[in-house]
Amino acid sequence: MIKTLIFGNTHGFDFYEQDVDYEDYVKSFYISTRKGKRLMVNRRGNGETLYNYLHYGIKESIDRPTNGLFGMSLVVSDSLFCTDFRKIFEWFDYLFEHIVQEGKILRKDESDTYKYVIGKFSDNKASVEWIKNTLPNIFSEKSDLRLVRYDSSFSDENTGKVAGLNDEESNEDILAVFKKYSWISISSEFPHHTHRNNANSPEIELSYQDLNNLYNRLTNISFKASIGQDRLTEDEFKLMLGKVRNIYDDLQKYLPSISNTEMSGKFEKLRDDYASLHDGIRTLINKTSPSTPPSNRKVCKTCGQEKDISMFRTPDADQCMDCEARYVPKRKCKKCHQLKPQDAFSNRNLICDDCLSKQEGIMCKTCGKRKSKKEFDTGSNICKACLKKPGGIFSSENIFSLDKNKLLQMTGSLNFKNPLLLFLVLLVALGVIYGAYQHFSSNDKVTNTALQETPTLQPGDQKNIVDEKLFNSCYNNNKFAEAYKLLSGKSDGDSYKKQFKKEDVIKEIFTLIDSSNRDSIFTQGIKYIEDNADLLAEVGLNDKINEIEDDLKVYEDINKILGDTNEYITKSEYDNYKKRLQESLVLKDGSESRLKSLKQKITSIEINNKEYVKNKTLDFISGEAITISSTIPSIMYDNKNIDMMETILLQEGTHTIKSGAITITLKVKKTKQSNTREKQVRKVEKNKQSSVKEKQERKEEKPKRH
Fold it and tell me: Using an 8 Å Cβ cutoff, are 318 and 337 in contact?
């Protein structure tokens, strides 16, 4: 049997079939930072194989930015699949181009960009149904593609891993990888390996949905084991522990490569969930088989293995050195596709500094601008223009006022790696010193021509030019308002104004604010805007002031929350702040870390492993047992503190669970059996009372003997 699914960002995300079994599945494909097209093939444990054709970089019908998605999926059941992945990709491409040419769902606009022409797929059911009826023909006799059944050569050991393959790879290589991974992603974005070396080197991504589903299954197993409902042996526990640890390792390595903030947050939470699950399983193992390691050995908190004390950096360390080395955070460069340490990337770039240097040149240490290599002397990190500026090392006033101390200062401040350059500089300096000596020892009869040609400035002229040294000091320390005020009334001030950028000025509005006074961030920001109206006008921010003020208010609210350890927020409040931060003009650079801190303040309550992120009323039956936990340590049950993961037996009535900003109300009712039993008890009691009363009456009515 073959099903079809149609989904995408028409005007917000829309799923035509509205099939609850696949809703979360298709939503997981939307990642706003992706571009281009890819075919993702997924074999599932229920015998289904899904061929998902995904086309990214599409405008929504309301002309939103080009970060939308159009998707078509074929769901093949009965453990059948097709081995010709490349031809399937070509058929999907052919159908997509036909849809665009027809222009009833998608079309190309004037800028040659794909765009939706409908607000929902249901707006043009006829065209969508035509797509659904045509898609299964990919596996017809005309397409020359046939379905075969899976055999024992397919492995399920890499759950949650997505192997990325270039679309020019051979079908044999793709099939070899598909046998090892339940997910493959075929796209031109992935590097092409001429010799795949037995399918061992694909690019690996992770499937959030698969790993989250696996986490829920493992959590359920461990929970049942903890309450004695299911019994697991120590070996079974250790096998589960190893699996959880490996997934945690994979998530830790994968996180730095995620550029999408929302996805990064989801994967971070998933990693933390697996870490908590790991600790829980290890605790169950200790309860199952408690053992005290010898004094010269200890258990690593991360990998759970018992190791010699020499394998730890210090006797008090709770993580072995192998795990420390394994968890050094790395990030994947989008240019060279290599995993590199975080410090190899400047200013949260997605491209490493080495690739940036090759692509964009070298960053000048003085002016902070990136320039081509030809604008630098060999081995120097200061550009030639900065060296020759007034006050620079090779400026005319310095060249002709050199003495021994100046020469030492000059040569000491340069990073000369080229011996020839060092020799030339010394030669020029010595020549100048010799000329000056000749000048001052000639009894004023011989005039040094070079000194006569050097312009001399009068005191009045010096006041009318910018103090470049002071200006550079302010500008390089991000004090843009101070730097701009130094230009007021100066004859050469206009030439310096070109350096100012609106992003820098906006950033200063926030960074100069006294973060300790969290209640006046908005007020301080407004004062800065009023005091520096000329600077804002210079960089073209007059039409953005209202937006900046809105962002300042958001910034103030967030700082208040982050500053008060007892204050927490709900998920809806977090989503609102997150939206404002992501739309902000300035906080783009810092919003990721601020969102990360803010996210730690979100309250959520878990009841029997089901998460609640807003106030809710739940119905239960008397006698049921529930286990309660929260993202924050404080949990109140009926206004009494309880421990994390505490199990409570519910009694009839209304109860409340409070944690942070969320309240869950429990309405506990009695079962029908309980009501029937109570009625029987009352009836028995009533009969007893009636019997006693009748006996008493008969006793009173009995005639007395004379």
Answer: no
- Whether 612 contacts 605, CB under 8 Å: yes
**Tell me: the pLDDT tens digits for 76-96?**
999 999 989 999 999 999 999
| CA terminus-to-terminus distance, the chain | 100
Residues 590-626 have pLDDT tens digits of 566 667 777 778 888 889 888 888 888 999 988 888 9
**Residues in CB range of 670: below 8 A, 6 or more apart:** 621, 622, 652, 678
Query: Which residues fall within 8 angstroms of residue 579, CB to CB, at 6 or more apart?
Result: none
What is the C-alpha separation between 170 and 667, in angstroms, rounded? 60
pLDDT in tens, 166-199: 998 989 999 999 999 999 999 988 887 655 444 4
Q: Is the dihedral of CA 616, 621, 623, 625 positive or negative?
A: negative
Write down the residue that tokens 């092409």 correspond to: 192
DSSP state of 576: H
Q: What is the pTM of this model?
A: 0.46
> Measured over all CA atoms, what is the biggest interatomic distance in the chain, rounded to whole angstroms?
170
User: Is the CB of residue 190 less than 8 Å from the CB of residue 166?
Assistant: yes
Segments of 91-246 assigned E as strands: 106-108, 114-116, 148-149, 161-166, 183-187, 203-206
* Residue 623 token pair: 């006698």
> In this structure, what are the phi and psi dihedrals at residue 447, rounded to the nearest 5 degrees?
-100, 130
For the cut 70, the answer to whether the pLDDT of residue 365 exceeds it is no
Backbone torsions φ then ψ of 70, nearest 5 degrees: -125, 130
SS (H, E, C) 228-293: CCCCCCHHHHHHHHHHHHHHHHHHHHHHHHCCCHHHHHHHHHHHHHHHHHHHHHHHHHHHHCCCCC
Q: From 398, 407, 406, 405, select the one nearest 454 (Cα to Cα).
A: 398
Please name the residue that has the structure tokens 């009023």.
530
